[in-house]
Write a structure and sequence with these properties.
The structure is a single chain. This protein has 102 residues and is an alpha+beta fold. It has one domain: YaeB-like fold (2-Layer Sandwich). The protein is 40% helix and 32% strand. The protein contains three helices and five strands, in the order βααββββα. The chain is globular. The two termini are 27 Å apart.
Length: 102
C-alpha cells in the first residue's frame, strides 16, 4: 500500500498559505493547493524524487512547489510505503529554525 499522510504542522502551514492567498490572490492559492495535491500523489510513486535535506534532519527530503518546499520523510516496509508530509514552508525560511523543535 502506498499513501501519504499530512502532519498537523503541514496542515497548519497550508492553512497559513491559504489565508495569505485568500487575501491576495484566490486563483493563485487554488492552483498552489491543486499542485500540492498532485505533487504528493506523484511522490507516493517516486518517493526519492525530492532532494535530501539530511543536513537539516536525518531522512528529510524536500520537493519544490512554486517558491515553497514540501518536506517529507519516507517510511518503508516490505509491503508498505508511506510518505509523511512534515511541513510546507517558503524556500527562503531558515530551515534549521523550522525543524529545531523536532
Amino acid at each position: 500500500m502506498r499513501q501519504y499522510i499530512i502532519s498537523d504542522d503541514a496542515i497548519q502551514d497550508l492553512k497559513e498559505i491559504s489565508d495569505y492567498f485568500l487575501k491576495n490572490n484566490v486563483e493563485a492559492g487554488e492552483k498552489l493547493l491543486q499542485a500540492f495535491t498532485q505533487k504528493c500523489s506523484y511522490l507516493v510513486s517516486f518517493p526519492n524524487l525530492g532532494r535530501s535535506y539530511a543536513h537539516v534532519s536525518p531522512n528529510l527530503r524536500g520537493l519544490p512547489l512554486n517558491g515553497f518546499i514540501i518536506f517529507y520523510e519516507v517510511q518503508e516496509t516490505s509491503d508498505n510505503l508511506r510518505l509523511d508530509i512534515l511541513r510546507v514552508v517558503h524556500g527562503r525560511r531558515n530551515l534549521a529554525d523550522v525543524f529545531s523543535n523536532g
